[in-house]
Amino acid sequence: MDAAATCASSLHYCSPVGFNEIGKKSNGFLRLSQRSKGERSLQVLNVRGFRSSRTLTQRRPVAFELSCSYKNCQAPALESEKTRDSVDELFILKTKSQDVAPYMTGRCIYLVGMMGSGKTTVGKIISEVLGYSFFDSDKLVEQAAGGTSVAQIFKQYSESFFRDNESEVLRELSLMRRLVVATGGGAVIRPINWKYMKQGITVWLDVPLEALARRIAAVGTDSRPLLHNESGDPYTKALLRLSTLSEERGEAYANADARVSLEHIAAKMGHRDVTNLSPIAIAIEVLVQIENFLKSQEDMTIARNS
Ligand SMILES: Nc1ncnc2c1ncn2[C@@H]1O[C@H](COP(=O)(O)OP(=O)(O)OP(=O)(O)O)[C@@H](O)[C@H]1O
Ligand SMILES: O=C(O)C1=C[C@@H](O)[C@@H](O)[C@H](O)C1
To answer: Ligand nearest 242 Cα, by number?
Structure first.
């Protein structure tokens, strides 16, 4: 297929399981591209035949290493310093994406991590800079359910019903190229989902639970059904539930090809904690860790063939 072939209007998906049977969905098809409000049309570019003229081991030196952006970054006092830092970060983001893109060979990026870890925020930045399309798997399940929210799907049907549909959405996405996918926080618990996500590159956004609880408390827990049963103030109940979920899932997130630890980024930048890390700084680290993963894959291939 021609790499420029854009299939946005012709891509139809079988409805994820169950919605037809219960009459929630009338036409039986989910049109991802047209219903993703604010997201670019879905482009499916077949780049299987593409071969980069450079290999990872031959790659040109990166003009600006990530550490450059982290230099002297402690709590800038002046607005102009902040602006300069974000201009620096944008420049580094762009440079890093140009460096990594040829080696992606169109593979999708799946962001995994706890609810509130920034998969959507960071995923949109990465998709933009790589020229990929962005999808949020929770949103796709909601669309398949005729606009029913995740919270309502849990309430009206069940968690396992939601999980079945989440798996079906991931299966369909796994057939595509050049996507950044923000997965649901619990997508990692089903082994079959890893089979789908491993068609691309999986990245774990590892955020300390206190930071997650702060973010979630700031926007409320209404849209997060797994937090509904806790009592207490929003921060405390989010923290309690997140701790349990994290214990249950710790191992599962660690299946990802690459791990982006916010604590690690904060330490590199000389920040005391992760609170002031910008989504762009996190997006840069995602690309750095993807590059490390691709490099290690290539090293293994060379070792196997020698
Ligand atoms: N680096 C950051 N610093 C501070 N707040 C952030 C950062 N990244 C994301 N947020 C905020 O945290 C909240 C959750 O972010 P986001 O929706 O991107 O997470 P998510 O992993 O996609 O969540 P979910 O799995 O629940 O959909 C949002 O309110 C967002 O604005
Ligand atoms: O952590 C989880 O299990 C969930 C996270 C959200 O993204 C949604 O997928 C849903 O609320 C379940």
So the answer is: 2
Residue closest to 189 by CA, chosen among 220, 160, 210, 152: 160
- 297/118: higher pLDDT: 118
226 CB near ligand 2 (under 6 Å): yes
Asked if 127 contacts 180 with a C-beta cutoff of 8 angstroms, the reply is yes
Q: Is pLDDT of 1 > 50?
A: no
Stated pTM of the model: 0.79
Fold topology of 94-207+256-305 = Rossmann fold (3.40.50)
214 Cα–ligand 2 center, Å: 17
For residue 115, how far is its CA from the centre of ligand 2 (angstroms)?
6
Residue 130, phi then psi, degrees to nearest 5: -90, -10
Query: Is the ipTM beyond the 0.90 threshold?
Result: yes
Q: Is the CB of 150 under 6 A from ligand 2?
A: yes
In tens, the pLDDT along 91-145 reads 999 999 999 999 999 999 999 999 999 999 999 999 999 999 999 999 999 999 9
Residue 269 to residue 141: CA distance in whole angstroms: 37
Domain range summary for the chain, segments of one domain joined by +: 94-207+256-305
| Residue 100 main-chain phi, psi, to 5 deg | -85, -35
